[in-house]
Amino acid sequence: MLQKCLMYPALQKFYNALTIVNQIDSRKYIFETIPQIDSFFSEMRNITFVMQESFNSSELKKVYEQEREKFLNNEVMKWFNQTRVETIHKHPFKLEKALYVEFYLPNFSTKTTLDKLTINNDLNFSDLYKKLKLFLDTNYSNCIELYLSTTITFLENGNEVDIYSVIQKGIEIMYAMVVDIMRLYPCNCEKCNKLKNEIKRLIDAVSVKKITFSSDLYYADKKLSIGSVICASLGSGCSLLSPPAPIKNSFLDITDMMPCDMSFLKVFAYYHIVLARIQRSESSESELMPAFLIIYENDTLSFYGPITGTNKSTFYRAISDVTKIINNNNIKAILILTEGYHYANKDIEQLQSMKYEERIKEASSVVILFTLISKNLDDIYGIEVDYENLFDGNYIDKQMKNIIKYEPYNHMAYPIFKALHK
Length: 422
Ligand SMILES: [Zn+2]
Prior knowledge:
The chain is an alpha+beta fold. It has 13 helices and 13 strands.
């Protein structure tokens, strides 16, 4: 017998779950997305709950058992299910969340430390914020300023869970099961069809999304301010990291030029000077967004960036992300494009005692910085171009020859240097 709207309650729960996960917005602060994750898991659990209720005759029960065996008997769904069982016995839904705080210390230095604050499930945004501020007031109130990023990580028995990929896999499997059951018990009524279409649309939207739960913060004068939030995940679908392409026939491939690190630095600089000139001829306020060029051992390259954000922590976090990319790939060199402030005839120590906002008032000019960090070189090298002289050909030629050598340890890119020289 054909059961009318047998799957309607399950479709509705699935639709709710998808709506919630689709509303998760990585541009929002992490703390706001946590309750959404909780609700998502709760609605996903409800799909099987309502199915158990609807499939109540002995024939339907048998079908439900078969479908459950076919689709839910795998690691991902066991994880969902186990969480569900825990929920039944222990009440409330429990998945531990850890707040990782990454500090970029201090002014010109580059040391990165990682602190972990384990937080209770039920802390809301303002409590979390207070807790973090108290932690900073206690440990870091003597710092002139502090750049930091926070990332929420989900833990289960102390192990990290890549929550978004689990979510995506769970949705995929649940959808396959729903489609399979609807093949056995189809319903073409208007309300079921409408939900089916909406579910399809939401799945498409969710599958292209990448989310990490990170924020960039700035701490000074016992005040904690939250900057913009960027960052896609570093996974294969990461939108900031372009897929590797051969150096051959790329902008780095110049006839009559030795394909060596220093040539790459020069070509990289020329290329962006041309871009900067085009931008400056259109607007005097234009700026170049920081970007990283990754050169792999197998003579391919990827761009990482541009890094947009209102907060310097975002750039430091990008450096930290690039070190992670280095650790997971065979990379021989990194080129960085940034803008910086030039301080002519200034006392470095005095500058270091100032907060960023005060310090930049002392700057004599804004420069474009091109930086090379190579596995084969024991120092960091760079080319500096002052915006004032951007259109002066003789000046540019001079700067191209005048390659600057930096002590790695005092350089902002030190974490990258360290990762390449491991
Ligand atoms: Zn129906």
